[in-house]
Amino acid sequence: MKLLSIAIPCYNSEGYMRHCIESLLPGGDEVEILIVDDGSTKDNTAQIADEYEARYPGICHAIHQENGGHGAAVNAGLKAATGIYFKVVDSDDWVNEEAYREVLETLRRFVMGDETLDMLVTNFVYEKQGAKHKRVMQYRTALPKRELITWNDVKVFMLGQYILMHSVIYRTEMLRECGLELPRHTFYVDNIFVFQPLPFVKTLYYLDVNFYRYFIGRDDQSVNEQVMIGRIDQQLRVNKLMVGYYNQSKITNRKLRHYMVRYLEIMMTVSSILAIKSGTEENMEKKKELWQFVRKENLPLYLRLRWGFLGQGMNLPGKSGRTVSIAGYKISQKFFGFN
Fold first, then answer.
1. C-alpha 282, offset from chain centre
2. Which of 75, 158, 160, 293 is the most buried (most CB within 10 A)?
């Protein structure tokens, strides 16, 4: 059994996947690197995956499957994982070696000790193309550093400060217990990956290191604003699924409930902003239908989201509405990092 399984979803990733894999190799025998070739056809992604498996037997494992999208690749990685902990690193991203060693040391300590850790949180860095100053998403205001905590110990998450896939490592068995299976052929499922398991997380630990490097700036990237508008139906689908995962009666901890509502608030903001910015009547109708869906699905949640600051801004006409919409857009930028 390995300490950590890392899944790398790859789709026509020849141009950057080597950099990603190389950054993970310093984990040595304690780590398994699951290179998931998600039906790549245009380049040598499959061959590169096989090459690393041959060069690093017992560490790198190539998984080949028909194209199913990012979610299907994560599912395949989770199914194959033998590690006690599980992490997803996208093929155009990488990790910092020094922080990586601290991450492994922390996980090792919990595995060897008596306490169970469900979720490890680290910082991530926006590696934005052309940006002189790199922004770091850190959690110092929200989480006590270097101590095992429960949701009761969580402090204040600022607006725009959320735990994303880049910042989280989950206990593998917990992910399986919560029935995590991401939808196929759908972008933005990384939000489900983080959100759905949260009620199953009993213990968490914040390691204040800049571990994950999140590359942003490719024109075809899923978080490019125009690409997101073109895929608004997928964003809406993810949004609706996340509303379904929020069951207030089952989420007993008040602080966790508050955090999950705030997460849904930013998801509703992103969906609404994309519809507004698209400028089409069709998408404005989809925005209206999304809000109606939440109302029908969960009225108390709808009232909380609709009459919150951002909810009002997404649904106000005229100049005042646009002012709040712009505020929501700036938070959306911070959340997704899009231009």
1. 28
2. 75
